Each structure stands twice: as C-alpha cells, then as structure tokens.
Amino acid sequence: MTVLDTFAGAGGFSLGFYQTGAFEVVGAIEYDKWAAETFEYNHPDAKVLVGEIQLYSDDFLLSSFKKKPDIILGGPPCQGFSIANKKSGDPTDPRNSLFTEFVRMGKIFEPKLMVMENVPNLVKARTSSKELVIDIIKKSLEELGYHVYHSILNATDYGVPQIRKRLFVVASDVPLENPFPRPTHSISGANMTLFGDLLKPTPTLWEAISDLPQIEACQGAEVMEYTSAPKTYFQKSMRASSDFVYNHVAMKHSKRMVERFASMSCGDSISDVPEHLRPVKRNGNGEFSDKLYDQNNRRMHPDKPCHTIAASFYANFVHPFKHRNFTPREGARIQTFPDWFVFKGKPTVVSHKLLQREGREAEKHLCQYNQIGNAVPPMLAQAVAENLIAELSIKTEERCLYTETI
C-alpha cells in the first residue's frame, strides 16, 4: 500500500510504515526546508512538497504524486497554531487549525486509512464552548465516512527506550476489531500478559547507545566509523546496513559547563549543582541566575529508559557518563531511527525567538535536534502499521469468505 506523510517533519512516522516492508512511501508535505531535505534524502523515490500545506490546491495535490495514497499520515498541530484570526475564532478549536488541512487530504485522496498522531493532552482539551477537542476530531473524520478510533500509546510498550506517550487517531474505511497494537515490551522485564503474550524487556538507555563512539564535549563528526561492536540486539537492529555513524557531534560546551555536568549524579539536574557552578544571568555582570529550571540538563540513568526526547533535547539531558549533552545521533537512537538515516541541516540554530526579534525569519529552520525530537519514533509507528496490516488482512479474508458463501 502507498503512504503520503503530511506535516511530515523528518519522516519518522512514514519510516515506521516503510520498515514493515508492506508500504511504499510515495510522498510527503513539509513546510520546513531542512526537515524536507532530510525526508527527501532518506526517501529518494518519494515526491516531497516543501511549503505550507494550505497553499496547495486540490488539483495540484492530486497531480503531484505518482500513485494515489492508500494511507495518509500526519501530526497536524491542533492547538496554539491557529491559522484563523484569533479574534474571530477559538484558537483551541481544531476547526480553526491546520487539522482542517489533514481532513482536506482525506476529501481529496479518499484513502483507506488516515492515521493521526498528537499530544496525549488532546483527549482532555476543550474548546471555549467546553466541547472536547477529540470529539470534534473524530466527528470531522466520521463525516468523511470513516470508522474512527483513538488511543494513547506508550512508546516503551513497543521496544522504544524512551518514556513517551502519544495520542493516535485511526480512521478506517472499514470497521476494525483491534485498531491499536497490543504491547510487546515491558519496562519491568519479560512477563506474560492476560492475553498470553510474552513481553520482552524494554531496552534501557545504555542498552540503546553504549556502542556509539564514546566522545567528549566538542568532539565528534557528521560521519564517523564505529569504534566497537554492537552489544545488544537493539543496537544490531539500529545499525542494520549502516557502515558509518552519522550526526554524532557533541555540543561545544565551555570548561565551566563541563565542570557543572561533572558535579552531577544520575537524576540530578541544573538545580542540584553547587552554587559556584550555577548559570549566570545574561548581562548580569557575573551574577548567578535566580531561574533554575528543574527539567533542564538532567543526567539520565543508564539502566532505565530515557525521558521524553523533545525538540529541544540538546538542553534537556546529560549523558549518563560523559560530561555533555546528547548528540543528535544518540537522540536518534533513543527515538529508534536506524543509523543509516541521515539528518540534514545544522545540528543547532540560533533561538527562533531571537531570529524573530531581529527580523531574520528566513534563517528559521528545524535543526537536527528539532527534527529528531519532533518525530514519531519509527519503532512505535511500525507497531501501529503492523497491527493495521493484520486488521486489514482479517477484513480482506472476511470479505472473501462472505463472497464465496454467497
């Protein structure tokens, strides 16, 4: 079956479908230049449209891809990104957001399936009129003739070495018995479920990244050779057919920053460092900052899954043993991107707020860290895809049996 990835980013969502071997990625739509370049590099046979989705006409989209998509994927921003005038509409209503473009893709292409991913809090969010956002989303897709289901999935339940919960919405042109995959892994280790399934242990952070070159702050390169053999099954699967390590560049920390990280034990954050190593105020003549964010620069435990990899994870986490933040490749491993998957663009960029203040919006792009943190973990997407394959196969068999009976 063919896949079109909308709001595609680097393409973690569609990569998971592609890795099942049952799907062909025919296209993507992404507004960010660097993220689109990443998608195009890793899916050379796919047509990538770079621009704002709402500016493409129906006719243009219908003629853009070599094959009509059977499945449309997407993570449209449903809150806080209103494309309507906020004075004339509720910005928390998904009908005033880019979600309407996701629905438009369903109207244009009439795919068998539409799969949407978003933040878990969307199931609790309400509009100003107290209507549940998830109900609006489901109703909008049902009006297209789909059977719609939603569930919150935890990435650790599917072998991703990261605590990450995400909302998935599945819209199918046929009813599904089990629209979402059962867990295959467990943080607590191998055990049996009520269904009789044997769960595998979820890989820990160190089981995920320990075979990558052990570099210090300011070291690394965009292309490196491996320096050790894989130590775990997870590492072997991530290496796949890759001959090199890509995007493994450590942050250029100052000597004082390295000393700060060296003072931290696992679980400590910037709020736990000695006073003389605390951050200083900007333009504060050396005065220590009063604002210490507990979630910033926390040293991760090696023997547990990592915390959620966010778009700004370059400042969120400290390596469990090295006195530096994660490299893009370490983040990509934690997100379950295979090592052959190369991220384009710069590792980091100047603050988007600063660029906006200085009128430099043209320089505003999603850096490697942003692309990785924004992505759907491919292994989680693959679990969703494999379950849908099984469900659709069952429906196909049922239709065949019904036809033979008649």
User: Gap between N and C termini, in Å?
Assistant: 28 Å
Characterize the overall form: globular
Report helical residue fraction.
25-40%
Query: Helix tally?
Result: 12
Low-confidence stretches: 81-86
CATH homologous superfamily of the largest domain - what is it?
Answer: Vaccinia Virus protein VP39
CATH class of the largest domain: Alpha Beta
Count of separate structural domains: 2
Question: Number of DSSP strands?
Answer: 14
Strand order of the largest sheet: 3-2-1-4-5-7-6
Please tell me about this protein's structure.
The chain is an alpha/beta fold and 406 residues long. Helix content is 28%, strand content 16%. The chain contains 12 helices and 14 strands. It has a 7-stranded mixed sheet with strand order 3-2-1-4-5-7-6, sandwiched between helices. It has a 3-stranded mixed sheet with strand order 8-10-9, with no helix packed on it. Strands 11-12 form a two-stranded antiparallel ribbon. The chain starts with a strand and ends with a helix. Mean pLDDT is 90; it is low at 81-86.
Summary of the model, kept short:
With 406 residues, the protein is an alpha/beta fold.
Q: What is this structure's SSE topology?
A:
Layout: E1 2-6, H1 12-18, E2 24-30, H2 33-42, E3 47-50, H3 58-64, E4 71-74, H4 99-109, E5 113-118, H5 133-142, E6 147-154, E7 165-172, E8 185-186, E9 191-192, E10 198-201, H6 205-209, E11 220-224, H7 233-239, E12 245-249, H8 255-262, E13 298-299, E14 317-318, H9 328-334, H10 352-357, H11 368-374, H12 378-405
Parallel strand pairs: 1-2, 1-4, 2-3, 4-5, 8-10, 13-14
Antiparallel strand pairs: 5-7, 6-7, 9-10, 11-12
